[in-house]
């Protein structure tokens, strides 16, 4: 079994080699002239994966940092890792490979949407594995705002809990307890 240090060195090498095999054009970035090194820059991977540059740099340097499964998924998506490579990335980062493919789009059946719509007096929603609200009814919108007008990020239940003044107002005195539960679910998931 490889030592902890070897694992971080391997994580560093793995991320660097996968980054270097990508071109800016493959990920939709404009050509920016001559490059000193092949492939994407660290800053480009960080931007596309929606993580901080310093944080991604630390990860690629093999520093001991805690990384979430969601961030690993975003990095894997940017680097266009195949299934076996994603598993290897999770192994190196000491994360449990998700049993549910968090990159797969969740779909709401017409029957489920009809059921939600029939709940006229009960605010109801459906969330995916990442706590994105993917379906809702009018009663939910009356309470929390027009979700159809929100961006995908704003429709994330964790995001909404901590950034929406309206959501905080609706929860009232129970907001802090609700927030603790959301954080616990987020860490557990």
From TrEMBL:
UniProt-recorded Gene Ontology molecular function terms: DNA binding
Task: Indicate the segments forming the HTH cro/C1-type domain, all copies.
Answer: 14-86
An example Pfam family from this entry, by short name, is HTH_31
Instruction: Extract the signal peptide range.
Output: none
Superkingdom of this protein's organism: Bacteria
Checking SUPFAM superfamilies in the record gives: lambda repressor-like DNA-binding domains
Q: What is this protein called?
A: XRE family transcriptional regulator
């Amino acid at each position: 079994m490889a030592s902890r240090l070897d694992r971080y060195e391997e994580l560093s090498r793995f991320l660097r080699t996968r980054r270097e095999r990508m071109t800016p054009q493959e990920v939709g970035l404009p050509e920016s002239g001559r490059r000193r090194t092949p492939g994407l820059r660290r800053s480009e991977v960080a931007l596309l994966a929606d993580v901080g540059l310093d944080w991604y740099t630390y990860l690629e340097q093999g520093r001991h940092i805690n990384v979430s499964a969601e961030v690993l998924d975003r990095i894997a998506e940017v680097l266009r890792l195949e299934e076996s490579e994603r598993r290897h990335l999770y192994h190196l980062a000491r994360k449990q490979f998700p049993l549910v493919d968090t990159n797969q789009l969740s779909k709401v059946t017409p029957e489920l949407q009809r059921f939600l719509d029939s709940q006229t007096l009960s605010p109801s929603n459906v969330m995916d594995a990442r706590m994105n609200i993917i379906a809702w009814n009018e009663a939910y919108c009356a309470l929390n705002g027009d979700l159809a007008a929100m961006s995908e990020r704003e429709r994330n239940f964790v995001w909404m809990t901590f950034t929406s003044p309206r959501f905080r107002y609706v929860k009232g005195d129970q907001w802090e307890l609700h927030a603790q539960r959301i954080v616990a679910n987020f860490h557990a998931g």
